[in-house]
Structure formats: C-alpha cells, structure tokens
Write a structure and sequence with these properties.
This protein is mostly helical and about 210 residues long. It contains nine helices and no strands. The radius of gyration is 17 Å and the shape is globular.
C-alpha cells in the first residue's frame, strides 16, 4: 500500500524540504496525460512516413484519445470525486481506468476506420492494453500511473531515437524516485509500472507498428 505524503515543510530539514519540492515538481511536469501526448508526437514525427503528415495524424490521435479522459479527470476533480490531483486513493482510480479504457477502445475503432498509420495504431492499442492491465491490478493493488506513462514514452522513443530514449529513461528513473519520495507509491509499484508499460509497448510495436 502506498503512503500518502503527510510531511510538511515545518517538520523537515531544509535539504529534505528541497528534495520534496523537486519530487512534487517532477510529478506535475510528467503527468501521465502529458507523457501520453509526448508519445504520440514522438511517433508522429519519427516513425517511418512521419514528419508534417505524421504530426497531423498524431494531433488527430491525441484529440480523439487523450482529450476525453482529460475532460473526465478535470470534471471529477472539480466535483470533489478525487481526493487530490494525483488521485492518490486507489479505489478512486477505478472509474478513471474504466472511462479511459472505454474511451481509448472507441478511439481505436475510429482510428482504424480512417486509416491511421500503423505506428500510431500500435501506440493506441498499446495504451489500451496498459490501461487494462493497470485497471485490473488496481482492483487490489496500486500501480504507478506516472511510471506507466513515462515507461511507455521512453520505450517508444528508444525504438526510434535511441539517444532520446536513453535520456527519457533517465528522466523516468528520476520520476520513479519522485513518486516514492512523495509517498504516493512504493518502489515495487513504480517498478511494476515500468515493466508493464515497457513490455506492452515493445510487443505492440513489434507486432503492429511495423
């Protein structure tokens, strides 16, 4: 079970306060939705047949796949359904996984119908599978969504631009530290997120994205 971050600046030494602030900043800028958008842009630009046309396809995929879950998240957060921006309470994440999976499934059907390039379809299908895996796990155990988002992005980048992929894996490691530092997750929950996303995306692009 992950711990909630319950330490305040008044109870921490200065160096601990700075590390906690850094961890929270990393958590904000690597939000899973941001990582998902970045993954589509990487595939759209760097995949074979990419460039301007690929970026246009990526923009369409982002609009169809990322926007609905984002709107749902914002609405539920403003309604007070989620306890905080991280959706730290495991049980509260169930509806997020369910809505996201249904939304992504519908977007995949639409993307197939309009002839979306295979690399972008591989990313969409990989995203669906990762969401389903995490949703099932979340019924009994919390897994890091930040880790799955960054693991997916870093794995995809490694396939097309190895130096960028290595840099993103280094950033992913920092994000993993941040999620543990803020007490949102345990190291094992972060590791599980990396393994689930990296394995799923590697298989998706191997069998679908070529």
């Amino acid at each position: 079970m992950a711990h909630r971050h319950d330490l305040t600046n008044d109870t921490l030494p200065a160096n601990e306060t700075r590390s906690l602030a850094l961890a929270r900043l990393l958590s904000v800028v690597t939000n899973p939705l941001f990582a998902g958008i970045a993954a589509y842009l990487v595939v759209g630009y760097y995949a074979p047949g990419g460039g301007p046309d690929g970026m246009a396809w990526a923009g369409l995929a982002i609009l169809m796949q990322v926007t609905p879950p984002l709107i749902f998240y914002i609405i539920q957060l403003r309604r007070g359904v989620f306890s905080d921006m991280d959706v730290s309470v495991r049980e509260e994440r169930n509806q997020l996984y369910l809505f996201g999976s249904v939304s992504v499934l519908l977007s995949i059907a639409a993307l197939v119908a309009i002839g979306t390039p295979r690399p972008l379809l591989a990313l969409a299908i990989g995203t669906l599978v990762v969401g389903l895996i995490c949703g099932v796990i979340n019924l009994t155990w919390k897994i890091s969504m930040h880790a799955t988002g960054m693991g997916s992005l870093a794995t995809i980048a490694l396939l097309y631009v190895p130096p960028l992929g290595l840099a993103l894996w280094a950033l992913s490691a920092a994000v993993g530290w941040a999620r543990v530092r803020t007490r949102n997750h345990t190291p094992l929950q972060v590791l599980a997120g990396f393994v689930a996303s990296a394995t799923t995306m590697a298989l998706a692009f191997a069998f679908i994205g070529q």
